Description:
Helices cover 37% and strands 36% of the residues. The chain is α+β, with helices and mostly antiparallel strands and 99 residues long. A four-stranded antiparallel β-sheet has the order 1-2-3-4, with helices on one face.
Amino acid sequence: MESRNVPEKKFSTGVITATIWQNQGKSRTGEVIGYRTVSLQRRYKDKNGLWQTAGSFRVNDLPKAKLVLGKAYEYLVLREQDNVSSAYDVEEDIIEEVI
Length: 99
């Protein structure tokens, strides 16, 4: 059974949304690696009143797109810093145990 990829985090303002996805792939050596992608979308109602999704933006959408993309970037950078910091803390603990 195929599992559905769910968003890791969403940032929205009005009808503009940046979604962070956790993905898996294989490196050139065949090792399974994880990576994240960000999708940017605008929601709108069509002439029948049904919600649709677009990847194009109006001029007035751009400040909102910039805002949600900035939040997504901030989230990813801070998450990466936390991971590096956590790895450093573990390394420090190992060094202290050896000494």
